[in-house]
Specification:
This protein has about 200 residues and is an alpha/beta fold. It has helices at about 15-20, 55-60, 70-80, 110-130, 140-145, 150-155, 175-180, 190-200; strands at about 45-50, 85-90, 100, 105, 135, 160-165, 165-175. The chain has one domain: Uracil-DNA glycosylase-like domain (Uracil-DNA Glycosylase, subunit E, 3-Layer(aba) Sandwich), CATH 3.40.470. α3 packs across α8 and α4 (about 110-130) crosses α5. The structure holds uracil (URA) and iron/sulfur cluster. Iron/sulfur cluster binds near residues 24, 94, 118 and 121.
Length: about 200
């Protein structure tokens, strides 16, 4: 039966989830990846940031947002006045999906089936952290967090929410930092970066 649920320890804290994640076989993505990439941050974070899936660098290092998208994200958090030590950072899908192009591994967007298979991990993380606000970095994260298809351009910065254990939890949708990375050195970079910062400001505690 597909899906991560049977590998997710019930009622676990973040450390318990992290310890269990390497064993997950909830979809086929574990097989070609180097390792699971779970999360950084603590149970006490007030802000949860959700990305799409680990990239090549993250797959090698085992931590989310350590590559080029992570550099943009760090800069944007600083510009938005959000202390990174108070943030929990994770991804909708915990294993790197890619295709080979020659000897290079090229990012391949995870499918809806991968997002759904991996969702029990994200739900368990949100239950453990109980954040005040969840920031979705891009459409894949937004689909996972809101449980529906989201067009980022239409919904970025809007006041959204999802049910949580203590009532509705605020949700902010914004662009994926990789979309800003792709504009590096091109016209539109500053505007894209500033728009990411403006959305992140909505999540400042
Ligand atoms: N992009 C993501 O969505 N997540 C990462 O961890 C790195 C890049
Ligand atoms: Fe499990 Fe998610 Fe990895 Fe699939 S991507 S094997 S569901 S952790």
């Amino acid at each position: 039966r597909p899906g991560a649920q049977r590998w997710v320890p019930p009622e676990a804290d973040v450390d318990g989830l992290r310890a269990a994640a390497p064993g997950c076989r909830g979809c086929e993505l574990w097989a070609d990846a180097t390792q699971v990439v779970f999360s950084t941050g603590s149970d006490r974070a007030r802000v949860v940031l959700v990305g799409e899936q680990p990239g090549d660098r993250e797959d090698r290092e085992g931590k989310p947002f350590v590559g080029p998208a992570g550099r943009i994200l760090d800069d944007a958090l600083e510009a938005a006045g959000i202390d990174p030590s108070g943030v929990y950072v994770t991804n909708a899908v915990k294993h790197f999906r890619f295709q080979m192009r020659g000897k290079r591994r090229i990012h391949k967007t995870p499918g809806v089936a991968h997002v759904e298979a991996c969702l029990p991990w994200l739900e368990a993380e949100l239950a453990a952290v109980r954040p005040g606000v969840v920031v979705c970095l891009g459409a894949t994260a937004a689909r996972a967090v809101l449980g529906r298809e989201v067009r980022v351009t239409a919904e970025r910065g809007a006041p959204l929410s999802r049910p949580g254990p203590d009532g509705e939890v605020r949700v902010v949708v914004t662009t994926h930092p990789s979309a800003v990375v792709r504009l590096s050195g091109k016209p539109g970079f500053d505007e894209a970066f500033d728009a990411l910062v403006a959305d992140l400001r909505l999540a400042a505690p």
